[in-house]
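Lab notebook, bench 4. The sequencing result for the construct came back, and we need a structural model before the next group meeting so we can plan mutations. Quick request posted to the team channel:

Model the 3D structure of this chain.
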Amino acid sequence: MADNVDTQLFLNVDRLKQLRIEHRDLDDVIDRLSGDPCVDQLELRRLKKRKLMLKDQISRMESSMIPDLNA
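Done. Here's the predicted structure in token form:
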């Protein structure tokens, strides 16, 4: 049972790292594109929405990894 919990925790931490990297990469792309007057504004909005969804997903995962003190 403990081994299964450790495996799940490792997978969650690994997934969290991947999400943070994707969020950071999107931030870089959005910063670069924001300075370009010829950029497709719809695409820019889609990237910003994706970045926000990633931020929310990261927050949920981080919250779920915090142990419940009442347990």
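The chain has one domain: 2-62.
Will bring this to the meeting.
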